Amino acid sequence: MFLGLDLGTSALKAVLVDGAQRVVGQASAPLTVQRPRPLWSEQDPDTWWTAAEQAVGALRTEHAAALGAVRGIGLSGQMHGATLLDAAERVLRPCILWNDGRSGAECAALEQRAPRLRALAGNAAMPGFTAPKLLWVAAHEPDVFRATAHVLLPKDWLRLRLTGEAVSEMSDAAGTLWLDVARRTWSEELLAATGLSARHMPRLVEGSAASGTLRAEVAAAWGVPAGVVVAGGGGDNAAGAVGVGVVRPGDALLSLGTSGVIFVATDRFTPAPDGGVHAFCHARPATWHQMSVILSAASCLSWLSSVTGGAPEAELVREAEARGAEALARAPLFLPYLSGERTPHNDPHASGAFAGLRHETTRADLTLAVLEGVAFAFADGQQALTDSRTAIAQVSVIGGGAHSRFWGRLLAAALERPLRYHAGGEHGPAFGAARLARLAVTGEDPRAVCTAPPVDAVVEPEPELVALCAERRRRYRSLYPALRDLQW
Questions:
Q1: Residue 358 burial (CB < 10 Å; 0-12/13-18/19+)?
Q2: Which alpha helices (H) appear in 165-259, and where do they start and end?
Q3: CA distance 304 to 301
Q4: Which of 15, 43, 126, 244 stands the most exposed, by the fewest C-beta atoms within 10 Å?
Q5: Cα separations (Å) of 424 from 78, 79, 111?
Q6: Helices marked H in 77-141 — which ranges?
Q7: Are strands 72-77 and 234-235 parallel, antiparallel or unpaired?
Q8: C-beta separation of 292 from 278 below 8 A
Q9: 269 backbone dihedrals φ, ψ, rounded to 5°
Q10: Enzyme catalytic residues
Q11: Rounded CA gap, 24 and 103, in Å?
Q12: Which long-range CB contacts under 8 A does 85-88 form with residues at least 24 apart?
């Protein structure tokens, strides 16, 4: 039995997976984001630990015997967050999250300080990454910066609580802008550009390797055997890719969660930063990936729910589906840039917008526009990848948004490609983390473990909907340039 923990932005998810790779138990605990100022996005790390205890506690209530048979734990989590600790490993301030946009000026400064940044890290400096956040802290919270002895990513802070070890792994570390991604090691050159050194960084392991063992007091509290191995794990997208077998060059996934990602596995480091494409390490040794990222995906639907009376998101989608995809012809257009945007714009100041509202516009029309706008943002990301000569083969869909096949119809039409939906695809990164735990314990051939789960359905692009989306996407793409210079 293996336990996967996925520290997301809106929830911590836990899954128990048996030797036949069946999910025998799952639980989650909600998390909230604090936005004390415009562009800011933070979380208190203590809430992560509370959520982990709640989720595992729920598993223990329902599946005590299975939890008692766990042999390994894998970790996955939201990337890029700056969790700052002092020499006594005390948290110095709330974690600055991946969708925080405050460090735009520091990104420009980092590019000047580190001329080889894009060649080494494989990415342009963007506010979401970890390194610019530390420059911001140095400039605006100098006492905190001077006291910082350790910088950990969110899931790796959770690992510290689990094992007592400060360790990260390649896929998550690649998202800091401090990793020499080709060599899979910390770059002293890039660290020095932010006033840090390797002594501030955790030890590095591969995602399928052991990073430590569970502390005895945690094992006793959770009902897990003593000495359980904790694997390196992976950043949320890399772990999600492991979960659906996206490990061969050209295999791809579309992650429809709080944020949105198109992830393509590669067998070499292939940076293409100019279009906002990311090049990171995969969670498997000697494997890399390219990725386009939109900062607001399913979170746009959550936002719409909150401002239109609080109806459940599933109810909103049902209302939109009842209107029918053909109703898009009369629906508003929606820019989903509620937290700024990465691919392709790299603009933390980009904002969301509806265009084409009328007296007769209904809530269902707004929902249609939101679903379509997110699909168009994915299409922009796909174009950035293909413009960088990335070959995309079959695409699997994971994340909470994978529950909606109606949304899948809009995505397939906007991307003009079939989308595969797998059994258990909604488990995403947590399932992949459990697979990485298994590899760390057993040493099995990853090709035998990291296979694609059974395909539940393939959503094909519908010609009429493709034509409608193509025309509406042309108008959608005119909105950002028209609004770019308007600041809110």
A1: exposed
A2: 170-173, 188-192, 216-222, 236-243
A3: 5
A4: 43
A5: 20, 23, 41
A6: 104-113, 117-121, 130-140
A7: parallel
A8: yes
A9: -75, 115
A10: 236
A11: 42
A12: 85/148, 85/149, 85/150, 85/151, 85/152, 85/157, 86/147, 86/148, 86/149, 86/150, 87/147, 87/149
Residue 313 structure tokens: 């998101």
Query: Could you say which DSSP state residue 446 is in?
Result: H
Which 8-state DSSP code applies to residue 458? E
User: What integer pLDDT is reported at residue 217 of this predicted model?
Assistant: 97
SS3 breakdown of the chain: % helix, strand, coil, rounded to 5? 45, 20, 35
Give the single-character DSSP code of 51: H
358's tokens: 């009328």
Integer Cα distance of 486 and 337 in angstroms: 14
**The pLDDT value given to residue 272:** 86
pLDDT at 487: 63
pTM, whole model, 2 decimals? Answer: 0.89
3-state secondary structure of 212: strand
Which residues does the chain have with pLDDT short of 50? none
Of 300, 425, 303, nearest to 375 by C-alpha is 300
Q: Which of 401, 379, 183 is nearest to 285 (CA)?
A: 183
In the structure encoding, which two tokens stand for residue 229, read together? 């191995």
Q: What is the pLDDT of residues 23-46, one digit of tens each?
A: 999 999 999 999 999 999 999 999
For residue 12, give both structure tokens: 């911590």
Alpha-carbon distances of 53 from 1, 81, 285, 478, rounded to whole Å: 19, 21, 31, 47
86-142 pLDDT tens trace = 999 999 999 999 999 999 999 999 999 999 999 999 999 999 999 999 999 999 999
